[in-house]
Amino acid sequence: MASHKDKNQEESTLDRVNTQLTDAGTHIAENKKIIFIALGVILVVAAFVLSYLFIYKNPKMERAFEAYNGIETQNLNDSTAAAQYMSVADQYSGDTAGKLAALSAGEALYNQGRYEEAAQYLKKFSSSDDILEANALVLTGDCYVNLGNYDEALSFYQKAIKRADNNPQIVPRVLLKEANVYDAQSNFGKALECYQQIKDNYPQFQPGNGMDMEAYIARELARMGNPAL
């Protein structure tokens, strides 16, 4: 038969267990409440995202592409095309069609000799396509060459080379542009490096002006006071 002391200890133990179970139940309830709140937040965010995509984003993207394609299908002069592309690029900035419009605006502005504006719109363009992005960077560099800002031009040419990732159609052409800029700065040693890179890494490249890389290298050596190859 259990003593009074044993009964008190047993009751005390049961009380502790009940208290622990009550505390555990409270924590479970609190955790469930947190989980339900978190799930509620996730559902609200998901509903917002879906609403944004289907109610706002997708129709906005469709309108942007309709506006861009509407310009593409017309036979417009550079001045009119530039104005319309700029409008679409400004209105739909950040959208794919807006970025393409910025690229087209940059090209049209460049053709008009509006190099500062062209560079600004070309900078608004970005793409996951390395070739397209590299060519946009090259044209931006060309804008700065025409503005006489040679350091900025070189910066964009170097970005283009990096983005082109050894593309044999793009990199040697950009290296040739770089060399021309270095020549304009009387930095003949850097120009020589560009020509040597073309000769070594892109032997199939032909400048198309009757001169091969050996001739460019010989010319640069002569400018440096060393006519020997």
Detailed description of the structure:
- With 229 residues, the chain is mainly α.
- It has helices spanning 4-72, 78-91, 96-111, 115-122, 130-146, 150-164, 171-184, 188-201, 213-223.
- α1 (4-72) packs parallel to α3 (96-111), α2 (78-91) runs antiparallel to α3 (96-111) and α3 (96-111) runs parallel beside α5.
- It is elongated and about 65 Å long.
- The model is unreliable at 1-56 (pLDDT under 50).
Q: What best-fitting shape do the alpha-carbon axes yield?
A: elongated
Q: Strand percentage, roughly?
A: under 5%
Mean pLDDT equals 78
Distance between the termini: 114 Å
Give the SSE string.
Answer: HHHHHHHHH
Number of helices: 9
Keywords:
229 residues, mainly alpha, disordered N terminus
Short recap of the structure:
By secondary structure, the protein is mainly alpha-helical.
SSE map:
Elements lengths: L3 H69 L5 H14 L4 H16 L3 H8 L7 H17 L3 H15 L6 H14 L3 H14 L11 H11 L6
